[in-house]
Amino acid sequence: PGYPLIPNRAHSHFELGGRMGKTQDSQVEERPKWDNKVQYMLTCIGFAVGIGNVWRFPYLCQIYGGGAFLIPYLIALVFEGLPLLYLELAIGQRLRKSSIGVWTSISPLLGGVGIGSMIVSFLVSMFYNTILAWVLWYLFHSFQEPLPWSYCPLNENLTGFNEECEKSTPVNYFWYRETLNITPNIETSGSLQWWLVVCLASAWSIVYICFIKGIDSVGKAVYVTTTFPYLVLTIFLVRGLTLPGATDGLAYLFTPDWEILKNPQVWLDAATQIFFSLSVAFGGLISFSSYNSERNDCERDAVLVGVINSATSLYASIPIFSILGFKARSAFNSCLERNILTLTNHFEFSDQNVTLENYDQWYNHLNEKFPDQVQNLNLRECDLQTFLDQSASGTGLAFIVFTEAVIEMPGSQVWAVLFFVMLFSLGLSSMFGNLEGVITPIRELHLVPKMIPNELLSGILCLISFGVALIFSLGSGNYWVEVFNGYVGSVPLLIIAFFEIISVIYIRGMKTFSDDIYLMTGRRPNIYWKACWLVISPLMLLVVLVAYVIVQAQKHPTYPTWNPSYELFPQTEVKDYPDWVFAIIVLLSSVPVLSIPLVALVRLICSRVKRSSAAVDLNPYDNSTFQIEVQEQRNPKA
Amino acid sequence: MLERVILLLCVLPVLAAQNCRPNAPEGHKVRLSIKTALGDEAYDWNENELFLFQSTMAYAMRRLKGQQFTVSNIVVCNETPRVSFWFVVTSPQDPSQLVPKGEVEEAVRKSRNRINQAFMLSDSTLEFIGILPTLAAPVEPPTPTWLIVFGVVMGLVVAGIFILLMLSSVQKKRKKNKIADEEEEDEDEGTRVQTPENGSTRVDYYNNSFADDERFTHM
Questions:
Q1: In which residues is Na(+) 2 bound (chain A) (predicted)?
Q2: Shortest distance, CA A15 to any CA of chain B (angstroms)
Q3: pLDDT beyond 70 at B105
C-alpha cells in the first residue's frame, strides 16, 4: 500500500516512537496535533508571510531596479531559502520536539542553538507586537470622518495651524506627534504615552486570545488571519489599477535596470530579505512541524510555503505601487496647479485658461515674452520622477506614504480600515510563530512545573512581554524599535541558521538525515537538496553573514531623528547612537548567539563531571532503553 | 456759490476715481475664481454681477457701521479678465472721505459668509487679498471616535478570553472524570492483551501505530 521498506533500525525506533506516545499517555499529556493539513499549511504560510512582504519587498524592488531585482531574489530563494525551510520542517517533523528539544536530540552540546532561537523569538515578538499596536491605533482612527491625518490641528490662539504641522505635513505630524509623541533623540526618554499603552494592551490581548489553547486556537484563527490579507490585496489590486497614475507607479517598479546587478549590495539585500522573510531560525517552524504526523510530505510543504511567500511579496507589490504611482501623480498635479494659480493670478488671465494639459505651452510662451517676471514668481519645479522617488519602506511606507495616498482616494475610510486590518492580520499570524518559538521551548526546558496549564503559561508570557514592551511606548519608543529591528532580527538569526544547517547535515549526518526523509516522505532527497545542504547554503549563509557584519561595521551606526528645532526641519536629523545605546546593541546581537558556545561548554563540563556515575544514555537506538521502557510498562500493570 | 457746487459735483467722481487705483492706501483687491469653484455651472462675470458685489459690500458696511451706505459708495476699478479688481469704500456723509482699511476689513470679516453665499463661492475662491479668513475649528465629538472603537474591540476580546478560559476549565474537569473511569477499564484490558506471546504483542503494537498515522496523514 505504498509503505516503504524500512530498514530494521529505523523500524524499531519508529515503533518505539509510536508506542511511547501511547504508553506515556497517563503520565504525560499527548503532544498536540493539527486538526487537518490545511491548518498546518495556513499557520506556516501565515508565519512566513508577514508585514515585511508588504512593506519591505516592494521598496527593495523599487530601489534596486525593479524587474532586475527579481533575479538575485529568486536565486537566493532557490539556493538559500528553500533548503533552510525544508531542513527546519523536516527535522521538526522527524524529531517531534520544539527547537530546544530537536537540537538537544541531535547532540546535547547543541542545546544553545535552541536557546538562541528562543531568545531571538522573545525579543522579536516584543517589538513586532508594538508595530501591531501602532497598526491598531491607526485602525481605530480610520473610523473618523475626516481622517485625522488629513488636516492640521489649529494652534492655541486659533489664528493658524499648528506650527510643527505646517512645516512638515499633516500625515507626518499625526505619525510623529499625535501617535508617537516622539522625543528629539534616543537619550530623551520622555514619558509613557497612555494611548500607546492602551493599544499595546489590546494587541497583546488579541494575541493571547488566539494563542490561548495553543495550536487548537491558533489553527482556527489562521483560517482568517492568513487568508484575509489576500482578499484585501486583491481588492486593493482592482482599486489600485483603476486609479489615475497607477501605470506610472507600476512602470517605475518593474522597469529593469540591469546595471544594478553589478552592485554587491543588491545580492546581499536579496539574500537577507529572503532569509528574514521566510522566518527561519526562529524555532517556530520546527515546533509547528513537530505537531505533524511523521508520515507527512514535508518536501512539498517546504516548497509550497517558500513559493507562496515569494509570490505574495510579488503580488503585494502591484497594488502598493499602483497606489504609490497614484500618489505621485496627485502630488505632481497639485504642484502644477499651484504654479498655474500663481501664473493666473500674476498675469490676470481668465480663470481656468491655463490648465494641466496646456501648462507647458503657456509656460514656454510666457517665459519667452516675460522672462524676468516669470523668474520672480519662483515657480516650483514639478517633476514626476522626484515624486515617484519619494519612496519609503517599513513604518514610513505604512504610516506616512500610504496614509497620504489613502486621503486622496474617494471613500478614504474604507480603504484605510481595510489596509490596517490587513496589516494587523499579517502581523498577527507572524506573532503566532514567534510565540510558539518561546512557549514550547519553555515547556521542554521544564522551566515551569507541569501543573501550570498552558493557558496560564501563555497568559504569564504575554503579560511579561507586555511589561517589557512598555519601553516602546515611551517618547523614544520608535528609536528603540529601530534598534531592536536592526540588530536583533538580523545577525543572530544568520548565525543560528548557520549552526542549524551544520548541526543537521554534519553532526547528525547527511546519511541519517536522508534516512529520516526517506522515512517521512518515501523518497530520498535528490541531488539539488543535497548539494544545497552540503555546500551551497552554508557557504551562502557564511558569505552573507560576513558581508553583513562588514557593511554594518564600516560606519558608526546612526539613526534618523524627528527634531522640530532642527534647522533643516522637516528633514530628519541623523545622529550617532550614544555609547550606552551602542553597548545595548552589542548585547542584543550577542546574547542569543553566546548561548551556543556557553551551553556547549556547560554540558561538556557537566558530562565530564558525571562521567563516573552510570548515566542512562537516552539514545533510542540503544536496546537497553527499550528494555527499561518495557519494564516500566509492565510495572504499573503488575 | 452755484459755481462752487457745480465744480464740486464735477470733481467728486474724479476724486473718487483717483482714490481707487491698484495699491491704493485704503483699497482692497478682490479675486474671484468662478470657473474653478463651479465648473460647468459657472456664470459669466458682467456688470450685473459687479453691481451685486457693490450692493453686498454696501450691506456689509451697513451692518458694521449702521450708516446708510449705498452702491455708489463702493468704488470699483481696474477690472481684469481674471476676474479681479480693486475697490475703495467712500463715506456716505462725505464722498471724498474714504473709509479706513481696518473698518472695511472688519466689515468683510463679519459678513464674509453672506458675501460668499451671494456668489456661491467659498473663502478660497472669493479672495480679499490681505483679509485672511478665520479658520473653522475641526468638529470634535465629545468622546473621541477611536476610544469607542477600542472599547468595542477590547470588550469582545476580554469577553472571548473569559469564555474560552471557562470552557477549558469545564472541559478539563470532564476529562478528569472520564480518565478516572477509563483507567479502570484499561487495567482490565491490559491483563487480557499481555497473555499472548511477545511476538504477537509486538505485532499488535505495530499495527496500531500504523493505523493511527494513516488517520492523520490524509487531509
A1: 49
A2: 6
A3: yes
Among A314, A285, A313, CA closest to A301: A285
pLDDT for res B210:
46
Say yes or no: A518 contacts chain B, CB-CB below 8 A.
no
Q: Shortest Cα distance from A529 to chain B (angstroms)?
A: 24
The pLDDT value recorded for residue A8 is 41
Containing H/E element for B156? helix B145-194
Q: How far away is chain B from the Cα of A150, in angstroms, using its nearest Cα?
A: 11
| Residue A359 to residue A345: CA distance in whole angstroms | 14
DSSP structure class, residue A81: I
**Closest to A470 (Cα-Cα) out of A236, A190, A245, A234:** A190
* C-beta neighbour count of A445 within 10 angstroms: 16
Q: What values do phi and psi take at B74, rounded to 5?
A: -100, 105
Helix A491-502 vs helix A264-277: crossing angle, to nearest 10: 70
CB contact under 8 A, B82 and A351: yes
Q: Count the alpha carbons within 13 Å of B7 in the hemisphere toward its beta carbon.
A: 4
Q: Does B219 touch chain A (CB under 8 A)?
A: yes
The reply to whether residue B213 touches residue A160, judged by beta carbons under 8 angstroms, is no
List, for residues A507-541, the tens digit of each pLDDT value: 999 999 999 999 999 999 999 999 999 999 999 99
Kind of pairing between the strands at B74-80 and B126-129: unpaired
Spell B124-133 as b/e; 16+ CB within 10 A means b.
ebbbbeebeb
Residue A23 contacts B where some CB pair is shorter than 8 Å: no
Radius of gyration in angstroms for the set of CA atoms belonging to chain A, rounded to a whole number: 28
Identify whether the C-beta of residue B75 lies closer than 8 Å to the C-beta of residue B19: yes
Question: What's the pTM value of the predicted model, to 2 decimals?
Answer: 0.81
> Which of A33, A209, A289, A633 is the best residue to mutate to test the B interface, defined by the most B CB atoms within 10 Å of its own CB?
A209
CA-to-CA distance for A526 and A523, rounded, in angstroms? Answer: 9
What distance in Å separates the CA atoms of residue A199 and residue A139, rounded to the nearest whole number? 10
Interchain proximity A348–B80, CB inside 8 Å: yes
Residues of B in contact with A455 (CB under 8 A): 164-165, 168
Those residues whose C-beta lies under 8 Å from the C-beta of residue A427, and which sit 6 or more positions away, are: A50, A51, A128, A129, A131, A132, A135
Structure ipTM: 0.74
In the block, which residue shows the cell 499557520? A43
CB-CB under 8 Å, A453 with B172: yes
Calculated CA dihedral for residues A144, A146, A150, A156, nearest 10 degrees: -90
**CA distance between the termini of chain A:** 38
Please tell me the predicted confidence (pLDDT) of residue A532.
93
- Which of A37, A349, A453 shows the shortest C-beta gap to B219? A37
Structure confidence at residue B20 (pLDDT): 75
CA atoms within 13 A on the CB side of B85: 18
pLDDT tens, residue by residue, B113-144: 888 888 888 888 888 888 877 766 666 777 78
Inter-residue contact B80 to B23 (CB < 8 Å): no
C-alpha A238/C-alpha A569 separation (Å) is 37
Q: Where are the beta strands (DSSP E) in A500-545?
A: none
Q: Is A184 on the interface with B (CB under 8 A)?
A: no
Please spell the DSSP secondary structure of A363-407, one letter per residue: HHHHHHH-HHHHHHTTPPP--HHHHHH----THHIIIIIHHHHHH
Structural domain spans, chain B: 14-129, 140-187
CB atoms under 10 Å from CB of A224, counted, come to 15
CA-based nearest residue to A143, from B143, B135, B159, B155 = B143
For chain B, say whether A24 makes contact (Cβ under 8 Å): no
Asked if the model's pLDDT at residue A73 lies above 80, the reply is yes
pLDDT of residue B8: 59
Contact B146 A140 (CB under 8 A): yes
